[in-house]
Amino acid sequence: MYQYIKDLLPRLQQLNKSIDHTASIIDKSWIYIDDDEKKHTYIFQKNGALIMSLNGSVTTGTWKFLPHAGSLLIDRGADKILLKHVFLDKAIIILRKDNNYDIPWILIDENVIPDLNVEKYLRAHIIKQLTLKEFRSNGSTYYYSDPDNIGVSRESVFYDENLNFATISITVKDKKIYKVENGVVNSSFLKLTFRTDKGNVTVISKDDYPSVGDRVLINGEKVADDSYTIRNHFFIRAL
């Protein structure tokens, strides 16, 4: 789980809320699952008191937000830990121990995530907040941003199934080809098929209609040098 969340952090930090307004974490029951899979409950009170529960046994401590460091200082009685803010939303707080980048320290609001499935929640959260839509290509799952609900466009950002920026060539509805590198479209082409006096010809065009310099193919092979007359206007492959 930790590795998966680390991989998601670049996307999560796009959606991050500041922990400066600590009202969002006060007087809520936060669940912390330790390395032994034990569930600890933490309740941060407005007066700086910290209530901790494990298997019904309650202990108390204190907490303090350090704005200059963007960190929580937690005194659990037996120890003190400094936790740096990484990500915050209504259901999850992701922190890390100072100088420890490998293992995040995660607090979960059980009222919002009753199954405590952090991975599932974060994935759905990112997809919703970035307005991503899913598609399949060559047996793999990908996502693209579509905030205006217009479908794939040159402004779309593309992600792989792990929500990392994708590098891929995408053909949309057998017509539009997008070359994507690191999530961003760097070129696009139209693939148009025409009925000509010498058979069906496919043109790969940067415009909406054939122009000088376009690639011309029949069955994937370059056509012979010649003149071609479009018959009965033209047709585009069925969408």
Descriptive labels:
239 residues, mainly beta, Lipocalin, eight-stranded antiparallel beta barrel, six-stranded antiparallel β-sheet, 2 helices, 17 strands, 10% helix, rod-shaped
Strand order of the largest sheet: 1-2-3-4-5-6-7-8
Output the structural class: mainly beta
> DSSP strand (E) fraction?
35-45%
Total helical segments = 2
Helix content: under 10%
Q: Please tally the β strands and state the result.
A: 17
Task: Based on Cα principal axes, name the global outline.
Answer: rod-shaped
Q: Gap between N and C termini, in Å?
A: 41 Å
Q: How does CATH name the architecture of the largest domain?
A: Beta Barrel
According to CATH, the fold-level topology of the largest domain is Lipocalin
Computed over alpha carbons, the radius of gyration is 27 Å
> What is the overall pLDDT average?
85
Characterize the main sheet.
8 strands, antiparallel, barrel
Under the CATH scheme, which class of the largest domain?
Mainly Beta
The number of domains is 2
Strand and helix order: HEEEEEEEEHEEEEEEEEE
Question: Uncertain regions: pLDDT < 50 for 5+ in a row?
Answer: 235-239
Task: Characterize the structure shown.
- The protein has two domains: 2-128, Lipocalin, CATH 2.40.128.370; 130-189, no CATH class.
- The chain is 10% helix and 44% strand.
- The chain contains two helices and 17 strands.
- The chain has helices spanning 2-12, 118-129; strands at 29-33, 39-44, 49-54, 57-66, 71-75, 80-88, 92-97, 104-109, 132-137, 140-145, 158-159, 168-172, 176-181, 184-196, 199-205, 215-218, 221-222.
- The longest helix has 12 residues, at 118-129.
- The chain is rod-shaped and about 85 Å long.
- Mean pLDDT is 85; it is low at 235-239.
